[in-house]
């Protein structure tokens, strides 16, 4: 969750939504994202809304403490129940992200999930995920999560090579993420993801292949692979500017993506979103699919974003300000926007084109349809899907996904 927040109109103190936002809600799935903003250290490439103990010292007082964070977040879950009123939907997905959610006690994560279960109910087949730092969990911790209702876990692996991890300022040791997969499987986790990053300065093709091989050898059923993005204001950006490490290269990113798709496909993983591969439909991250398909979700926590029925809002960033608002009985919302039909059409194209099923050509205007025709002739869209009325990216199209999306929207 990037740290910068957009502008927007004020959120009412009680968080109330316009009546139209809940119209037809029963037909849309509902998910929860729970943001835990704490990290033991700050990774050099990270631009997310996260805080170390040093960064929080003296800025939030007792309200910003991670010791009572679960209680604060549960207050927002209860606020969500009031705002959504008699909404009958059980929650379909819960995703706990960060930051490092597993810096909290396992019992705290279970209590946060329990609040959602108590206030809304969970669907019988609900997907319940947490992210985890490999060094912050052990078998007992994982067993507590599994017994408390979590059935999916995502470990931040990033790389199997020590020198690559060092550039990223990652603190875990190579081999620990793979061991975590085995530990999670042993306590009954049904679905396990490993997150990888490619294109780190100093990483070679062989390094990247070694990371992929190590990830596959661990036995996850889902792998996410993201190109490193150097965000302004990060330690990595400053190091590149000083000439300490080279700038990342788009051509290298493309080559690494091709390697990832070749290796993962060869191991029985199918891509279902440009940066995500799974061994089966059941292995997909359903929570992320809520985002990509414009469903409803409530984001609880500092800086978290929410969307319900065409209304999008975001919370204040700082944990102290967030906790203070809830302690005072106010919504922690910092701003919101009401999406027009055109906004939602454009967002559908932006997001759905990245999916394996693509987006309907019926979403495109005249200029977009002409651009789709050009993309087809250039081998960026699949011809069979196009004939069936859908824009679906080819492998080459995935390499140029952002450019294709811009053309179709324009």
UniProtKB/TrEMBL annotation:
Report the superkingdom from the record: Bacteria
The protein's matches in Gene3D superfamilies, at most eight in alphabetical order, are given as:
tm_1862 like domain (3.80.30.20)
User: Keywords in UniProt for this one?
Assistant: 4Fe-4S, Chaperone, Cytoplasm, Heme, Iron, Iron-sulfur, Metal-binding, S-adenosyl-L-methionine
Residue ranges of the Radical SAM core domain? 24-270
Q: What is its main location?
A: cytoplasm
Localization (cell): Cytoplasm
Annotated PANTHER family? COPROPORPHYRINIGEN III OXIDASE, RADICAL S-ADENOSYL METHIONINE DOMAIN-CONTAINING PROTEIN 1, MITOCHONDRIAL
Q: Which family does it belong to?
A: Belongs to the anaerobic coproporphyrinogen-III oxidase family. HemW subfamily.
Q: What does this protein do?
A: Probably acts as a heme chaperone, transferring heme to an unknown acceptor. Binds one molecule of heme per monomer, possibly covalently. Binds 1 [4Fe-4S] cluster. The cluster is coordinated with 3 cysteines and an exchangeable S-adenosyl-L-methionine.
Q: What is this protein called?
A: Heme chaperone HemW
* Source organism per UniProt: Streptomyces mirabilis
